[in-house]
Write a structure and sequence with these properties.
Elements lengths: L7 E3 H8 L3 H9 L6 E3 L2 E5 H11 L1
Antiparallel strand pairs: 1-3, 2-3
């Protein structure tokens, strides 16, 4: 199901995958519910972090 998803997602890719708005995703990232890192001012979100969030949230 998630084979087409890159190993490291951009903010927009993650937003589309989770079907959430900008502020919701920012809250998840800032609260540590989804582990991510920044390169400069760009968020990079590992697929494994999103999969873990989905597994435990739903």
């Amino acid at each position: 199901m998630f084979e087409h998803v890159p190993d490291i997602m951009t903010f927009q890719e993650c937003q589309m995958l989770l079907k959430v708005g900008k502020n919701t995703l920012l809250d998840l990232l800032h609260n540590g519910e989804i582990e991510a890192f920044r390169i400069g001012n760009r968020w990079k979100i590992p697929k494994c972090s999103v999969m873990e969030y989905i597994r435990y949230k739903f």
